[in-house]
Design a protein that fits this description.
- The protein is α/β, with parallel strands linked by helices.
- The protein has 2 domains: 147 residues, no CATH class; 112 residues, Rossmann fold (3-Layer(aba) Sandwich).
- 31% of the residues lie in helices and 19% in strands.
- It is built from 10 helices and 14 strands.
- Strands 4-3-5-6-7-8 form a 6-stranded mixed beta sheet.
- Helix 7 links the parallel strand 3 and strand 4.
- The longest helix has 22 residues.
- The C terminus is likely disordered.
- It binds zinc ion (ZN).
- Zinc ion binds next to loops.
- Zinc ion (ZN) binds next to loops.
Length: 335
């Protein structure tokens, strides 16, 4: 069983064989680095953590959380590099009371971290024998489809960038899938379900699909797998995480987390207490390697748990169960 993510992280950390102990020591050194940069370079973090001395993981686990409201109010003050170093800004409308959008800033280096994660995480899904169709935004530089394309082409995968379906183009998409012999694709769950439903009469040879960018319903999984008999992988991530956080491995049993770039905690949303592995709660994350706009103990509003048992593939990485909305406490991955 290939452990692509473990091999990748071993390489980065410089360990012969990845262990939890080494990984956690690496994470702690990166947490301190991130914290020190944040309080030195960002007025927002300097103010939020002005009386904090960070000497131990316990100190870290007592830090106040950050929230989407903080991003709406203070996004520029969370940036830790000169403006000239910013190569992409993502603006997201929010339903928050202030009406201000969330703005997330990335450097070129930050974006390459995501490409790197996609490059290794996608090895479970497609290889050089595949033709991969991207049914996600892929025209704007730095968009998920563009980064994914770069990652897949590094592995020799033939990529067909299409973009999001508008709902009227199902037949066009199916014709392309048939004509180009598409064997793998990424799409939003609902959209791919509509395409799969309409695929009778087309010769589709789909081997694997990746569902991302929204909660995955059982219905969409069932419709797609019945129509095409393909493997269904799920991905979870959000823009703040640098788009990617966790993606199914070959076992399709929980999504291993990119723990070299992200430190995750599961908390009780009422008390803020950190919950042990196996218990469900809100996902809180800290970026370990981001330069442009680091996040520290950021509350996602997403609901999941960490699977206690190690994965059958032998990976040491922690895995997330299906992710849902905090208020729904159910659902599927979104990314
Ligand atoms: Zn695994």
């Amino acid at each position: 069983m290939k452990k692509y993510m473990d091999l990748w992280i071993e390489d980065i950390i410089g360990e012969e064989k990845l262990s939890r102990q080494h990984l956690e020591a690496y994470q702690w050194s990166k947490i301190k680095e991130t914290f020190n940069r944040a309080v030195t370079c960002s007025p927002f973090y300097a103010e939020l953590y002005k009386d904090v001395v960070l000497e131990s993981p316990d100190d870290f686990h007592r830090l106040p959380f950050t929230t989407p409201e903080d991003v709406c109010e203070h996004s520029l003050d969370m940036v830790c590099v000169p403006q000239g170093k910013i190569s992409r800004i993502v603006t997201m409308e929010t339903s928050g009371t202030t009406g201000k959008p969330k703005r997330i800033f990335f450097t070129e280096e930050d974006q390459q971290l995501t490409v790197d994660f996609f490059h290794h995480g996608m090895k479970f899904i497609a290889d050089e024998t595949d033709v991969f169709m991207i049914l996600m935004p892929c025209s704007t530089p730095g968009s998920i489809g563009v980064l994914l394309r770069e990652a897949l082409e590094k592995s020799g995968v033939k990529v067909i960038p299409y973009g999001l379906s508008d709902g009227q183009d199902t037949a066009d998409i199916l014709k392309i899938m048939e004509r180009e012999n598409v064997t793998s694709c990424v799409a939003m769950p609902q959209q791919l379900m509509q395409i799969a439903k309409a695929s009778d009469g087309y010769n589709i040879r789909m081997r694997s699909v990746l569902l991302s960018a929204d909660y995955v319903s059982e219905e969409s999984r069932n419709v797609i797998s019945e129509a095409w008999g393909c493997k269904i992988f799920e991905h979870y991530g959000m823009t703040e995480m640098g788009l990617g956080c966790a993606v199914h491995c070959s076992e399709l049993d929980g999504c291993p987390i990119r723990e070299n770039d992200l430190y995750l905690e599961i908390i009780d949303p009422e008390t803020g207490e950190i919950l042990p592995d196996g218990e469900e709660g809100e996902i809180v994350f800290t970026t370990l390697t981001r330069k442009g706009m680091p996040f520290i103990r950021y509350r996602t509003g997403d609901w999941s748990s960490i699977i206690k048992e190690p994965c059958k593939c032998g990976s040491v990485l922690k895995r997330l169960t299906r992710v849902g909305d905090r208020k729904m406490k159910k659902g599927g991955y979104h990314g």
